[in-house]
Structures are given as structure tokens and as C-alpha cells.
Amino acid sequence: MASSRFAVLEEDDLDLLLDMRDSVNTKRVIKASVEVFKAYMEEKEMSFDECMSFPSQEMNCLLRKFYAETKRVNGEVYAKKSMISLRYGLQKHFLKTRKEDIINDESYKTSNEMFKAVLVKLKKDGVGESKQKEAIAPEDLSKLYDTVFSTETPTGLQKKTIFEYLYYFCNRGRENIRELQKEDFSVSMDSTGREYVTVRERQTKNHRGDDLQDNSNKQGRMYDRPGM
Fold it and tell me: Distances from the Cα of 193 to the Cαs of 190, 209, 224, in angstroms?
């Protein structure tokens, strides 16, 4: 009997391929999101397993209340980015377990409207915002370039490259850095003739769905700085 041209994979093998697609950070976000969802249902005296078998309409109603009522363990509200991360993790879990996209499927329209309303309220109330780190002082930057970021050694050049990528482009974290390709970078020129580099936007746990449009004007630029 002639050997088959194509491999024969069982459902478990196909699921394993899908699992391998997600990074370690993404899997961590999924796990944390599911744990929060479980804790919410336990407090409401509901069974997680039973709830996960709800029809889409009932699940949509449950998520609608969850987005409005969920809080941290200490009772404080989540920051905007944490809420986006939470929904992203749940979306990945629902895609795997229920084959449903809770962000884009029409069945989940009202829960997503509630999610957006929660984000608007967080911004209006001025609570739950992520605390930004203090900017690096110019003198500290000079020390780094003088003592650490030497372009004369492979190690120094690597440290300089990684630092500058994080400094100019990683306002949402360091996820997906290993997946970056040459095509992700674009060189442009502003109205004064100065060249700068930008990085193509990616969907991440903090940068997902409708949030892509909201951040379209906040893209980082790394300007040409001869001698640096």
C-alpha cells in the first residue's frame, strides 16, 4: 500500500497545534482571566462548569453583569488595560472551549456595549488608571550610553538595541518581541525632513479589538539620532 501524502492528525493533535500558537504570556493571561471569572461565579453561587454550557444568549447576559461588577480581590476597580487584558483572556478561552468570539460575535453585542461603558466610566471617574513609571532622567540615559551600550562589542550592541526598542515602542509591555520580523518596522520622514522608525501595530492582550482604533494616534517613533 502506497504511503499517504498527507499526515493524519487526531483532534488532540490539532488542539495541541493551536495551544502551541499562544505565547507563555498569553497562556498566563488566559489562566488569570478564567480564574477571575470562576471567582465571580462562585461568589454568585453559580457553577462554572454549568455556566460554560449556557447558550450564547445566557452567557452574553452573564458577561454583561460580570464586566460591570468585577473587581480586584481588595475591592478596587480594575484599570482600563487590566479590563482589556481580562476580556482578551476570556475571549481566547471561549474560542477554544466554545468556538465563540465574545468580542466580535453578534450574539455578544450587549455585553460588549457594557464593557465599553465600563471603560468610559473608569476614564470619567479618574479611578483605576495604571500608574506610569517616572521618565528616565537625561543624565541616567547618558550614563547608560557611556558605560553599557557600547557598539564596539556584540553584547553592548545587543543591549543598546533591546533597550531602544523597549524605550520607544513598548508602552504596552514586552509581549511578542520574539515574534518581531524585519517587515514589522517602517522608516518614514516627517515634515521637517527627519527620518524616524515605527513598528507595525500588533494585537496583544492589552491591545485588542476596538482598542486598536483608540490607540492609532499614539504610535511610538524613534527618530534618527546620528552618533547615538
Answer: 5, 34, 10
